[in-house]
Design a protein that fits this description.
The structure holds two protein chains of two kinds. By secondary structure, chain A is an all-alpha fold. Chain A contains nine helices and no strands. Helix content of chain A is 85%, strand content 0%. The chains are: A mainly alpha, B alpha+beta. The interface between A and B is medium-sized, with 25 and 26 residues.
């Protein structure tokens, strides 16, 4: 029985890393659509009213060009194996992860969110995503400065959950299209919220399970 | 080991195609005769518009000149049903096309005109004979340098044309018949679609086309397992010829709606579609008359702007709507 659980655990881990790497690769493909800079390509084709604004141009390309690195860095940062084996690298890359989010990806995301398609419902959804992303990352940074690594880990998990919304909101989009075939802006409104809330809830569930496991262990001792 | 992994990753990145995040085979049907690309010089040589000198015509036949419109039906006898196209859910196309036979010049022995059907605008010249009171017989030939040229034989009688057409070459449907009524054409931007035939884009089917032969009567049926792109009621409400559309108007529309709203602009100008799907759909509209195969110069500024906007969203929907990438 125990062996079975171990095997299942291993399977889930391999699946998780396999999927996350594949979808990161897809996000990379999405990113290179915007290279070199072109104001009339992909998503920007339906953002013609906004892309003429200088601040939107800066925000959009800042977001696109930095977020891909945040995502890739994050993949290494959450790996236990990597952290234990390459602690120095974990520290260095963590500085980049935090710096890119706080100084570039999140503020630019906030601005893009303000101009989001789909009306105020999606605007609020995307802007909250940017704000929470900033808050979690900043908290994680503060706790690592205080050497409180338990809380650092918790906030980094939350931060990375929101980083992963780049992937999950697109997966959700495909799912909603397949199942209900809703009109495009209705889909945007759904993913502006569900695309990151689902991840956050999953992380909180994970923490809850960990906590109850710990309680059990303590009671045994 | 790491070098090997690195090689794999790099080849992945290079070989990787955008097909996983967007529809790379995206095709938005935009026929040459409707092109609105601003900087575009002449893209392709269109068949020269037919300008017949009306002065050649004898004024006493003036009342007979004009457009005669109706169905151009296959005349196949028993073969007929084999040539039909069927879809489940009751969509069926019996290979009828709407034809417009235009009589441009009539004098005592000669008739000149042209016909517009299925994106083809072809002139004809023929003989003209009075056979009874108010009844005239015409036998006219198309030039013969087009695959679909042939001979028209018809009777003109009190604003009606009845007759047959036979192709010169061996094409799928060699004989057609028609019974047409005289109809005036005038561009009217306020014309709206009427409930006539549901739109189903036969090419936009998610599953494969399966051809099934019904054992009982040998009927060939094409089944489509899944849904096709269908429209909503917005196509009866939105008019892209009368006012400038905004982003707000169209951003929440799905692909099929955008397509039909854009193509209704062309239909108002009497554009004759090469594309079968649009042809079947607009042929069912009683106001629709195929008049031109090139309407580039007819489009108004409002329409040109709207076409560009609609195309933008159509292309985006076609490439990204059901893909991982967000357009």
């Amino acid at each position: 029985m125990n062996q079975f659980l171990l095997l299942l655990d291993k399977f889930i881990r391999v699946l998780f890393w396999g999927m996350i790497s594949y979808f990161t690769y897809l996000i990379f493909l999405i990113t290179i659509q915007y290279f070199p800079i072109d104001f009339d390509t992909a998503f920007l084709r339906i953002k013609q009213d906004e892309i003429i604004l200088k601040h939107y141009q800066i925000a959009f390309f800042t977001h696109v060009y930095t977020s891909i690195f945040v995502l890739i860095l994050g993949l290494f940062q959450i790996s236990n194996w990597f952290r234990k084996k390459f602690t120095k690298w974990h520290k260095l890359m963590g500085k980049f992860y935090i710096g890119l989010i706080l100084l570039a990806a999140s503020p630019s995301g906030l601005l893009i969110g303000y101009y989001a398609n789909g009306g105020w419902i999606s605007k609020i959804g995307f802007m909250l995503l940017a704000l929470f992303w900033f808050y979690f990352t900043f908290q994680a940074y503060l706790f690592t400065r205080k050497r409180d690594f338990v809380r650092h880990r918790k906030f980094m998990y939350r931060s990375f959950a929101l980083t992963l919304s780049a992937i999950t909101l697109r997966l959700l989009k495909v799912g909603v299209v397949e199942i209900w075939g809703l009109p495009p802006m209705d889909i945007t409104r759904i993913i502006a919220w569900a695309g990151w809330l689902v991840n956050l809830i999953l992380v909180e569930i994970l923490f809850f399970i960990e906590k109850s496991k710990l309680k059990k262990l303590k009671s045994l001792v | 080991m790491m070098r090997f992994l690195g090689l794999i990753v790099i080849s992945f990145l290079i070989l990787g195609c955008q097909g996983e995040i967007k529809n790379e085979n995206s095709t938005v049907v935009e026929e040459n005769g409707t092109d609105v690309t601003p900087s575009d010089s002449i893209t392709e040589e269109e068949t020269a518009p037919i300008i017949d000198d009306k002065n050649e015509s004898d004024p006493k036949y003036d009342h007979m000149l004009g457009f005669y419109v109706g169905d151009f039906e296959p005349d196949l006898g028993d073969e007929r049903y084999d040539k039909n196209f069927y879809l489940d859910d009751g969509y069926m196309w019996n290979r009828n096309n709407k034809i417009n036979i235009s009589l441009n010049i009539i004098n005592d022995s000669i008739v000149k005109g042209h016909s517009v059907v299925a994106g083809n605008n072809r002139p004809f010249v023929g003989t003209f004979k009075k056979t009874a009171e108010n009844t005239y017989t015409v036998e006219a030939k198309e030039p013969g340098d087009d695959k679909y040229d042939g001979t028209f034989t018809f009777e003109v009688k009190k604003g009606k044309i009845d007759g047959e057409w036979t192709a010169f070459k061996k094409i799928d449907i060699r004989k057609r018949k028609y019974s047409l009524s005289k109809k005036p054409y005038k561009y009217d931007p306020s014309i709206q679609l009427k409930y006539a035939q549901s739109f189903a884009n036969w090419n936009k089917v998610k599953s494969e086309k399966v051809i099934v032969i019904d054992e009982s009567d040998g009927e060939i049926v094409q089944w489509f397992e899944k849904e096709y792109a269908t429209t909503t009621d917005i196509i009866y409400e939105m008019n892209a010829s009368e006012r400038f559309l905004t982003k707000k108007d169209i951003e929440n529309l799905k692909r099929a709606d955008l397509q039909i709203i854009r193509n209704t602009i062309y239909a108002r100008h009497g554009y004759s579609y090469k594309n079968r799907i649009y042809r079947i759909f607009f042929d069912a509209q009683d106001w629709y008359i195929p008049v031109h195969t090139d309407i580039k110069k007819e489009l108004t500024d409002i329409e040109k702007k709207n076409i560009q906007l609609l195309l933008r969203y159509e292309k985006n929907a076609d490439e990204y709507y059901d893909y991982f990438g967000r357009g």
